[in-house]
Design brief:
With about 425 residues, the protein is mainly alpha-helical. It has 19 helices and 2 strands. It is globular.
Amino acid sequence: MPKPKKRGSNHQRGAGGQPRNVQPFSDEDASVETMSHCSGFSDPASFTEDGPEVDEEATQEDLEYKLKGFIDLTLDKSAKTRQAALESLKSAFSSKILYEFIMERRMTLTDSIERCIKKGKSDEQCAAAGLACLLCVQMGSGIESEEIFKTLGPVLKKIVCDGTASIQARQAELYSTMECLENIFTKAYQRDRDTNGVSSTHNTVLHVSALLAWTLLLTICPMNEVKKKIEMHLHKLPSLLSCDDLNMRIAAGETLALLFELARETDADFFYEDMDLLTEKLRALATDGNKHRAKVDKRKQRSVFRDVLRAVEERDFPTEMVKFGPERMYIDCWVKKQTYETFKEILGSGMQYHLQSNDFLRNVFELGPPVMLDAATLKTMKISRFERHLYNSAAFKARTKARSKCRDKRADVGEFF
């Protein structure tokens, strides 16, 4: 009778005794293997009393064993293998809180990310930059994230400013300095062809990413800096509403809505000279019936610009509600919407789980400590719709008051980034 094979017995061993040829996660693997370990923690309601018991310690050890293998594979000679390892780490980091595991290996991870950004090509650099974002989300707003940013920031900024680097690599990570980002997206103001004879639309994707990243950073700037940026860009941004690219038009519109929101917070009597011309442009986009544009694009544009027009003209924002587990979060302003959309892009399907469990994210969105509930407690939490309405109304008012008090305390930018 043949002897059972030991784990990794047929694999070559790399640094740290880990298998060199561990297969990178595919989307299917992520959902079946590691993500199945993680999904049980993402929603308290997923636990059932009659379900089979799971050895959580063994599951955690198995997950960490695989992650160690992926970390080792970020040093592999094959670019394809390195990229697959980075993508697998991203999947795990977005789906489960791994603070202790990462804390012990943050320097190794940071070094691996730096090496992949410096030596890798476009796709590998994008994957490494995305992993860097997730690394900071996992570490929170403490000194560890600052150390990671200080190490990787100059490398990322160099790529962002490098005109010879690939467009994909330059847009992958733009959270550096606002001046650097401005140098990128302000080129979109120019309608003429650049010095190389290449149409400016060639870099539109990069310009959109830079504008959105710049807008995010603006939301945590002190008010005096906000005023300077508004004066500098508010009269130029409307020119981007005429861009041929849908994503650029939408990014410009949402940025304008956010700038008006911030401007009115700093000055209740804020006055914009070209308001009639701007609202005319926004109304045209909100009712666009151009036959040369795809129906899907027209529907998306009209939906976005109806909200933008209401924000600029009527100072109104359509409140949205995000559900995660037993909790609810209201997105009731453009600043919060921009922040939410950024983290959602980074975390993907893991956004709800991190909203429930990640202290850093809960601090950013003022959600308080994580709510720890077992299945039995959840079953007893069924309350009437009227009671939920009263609770949500009270919570909404409390958040509004708290946010108003914090508006003038933006000087401590390093608290979140």
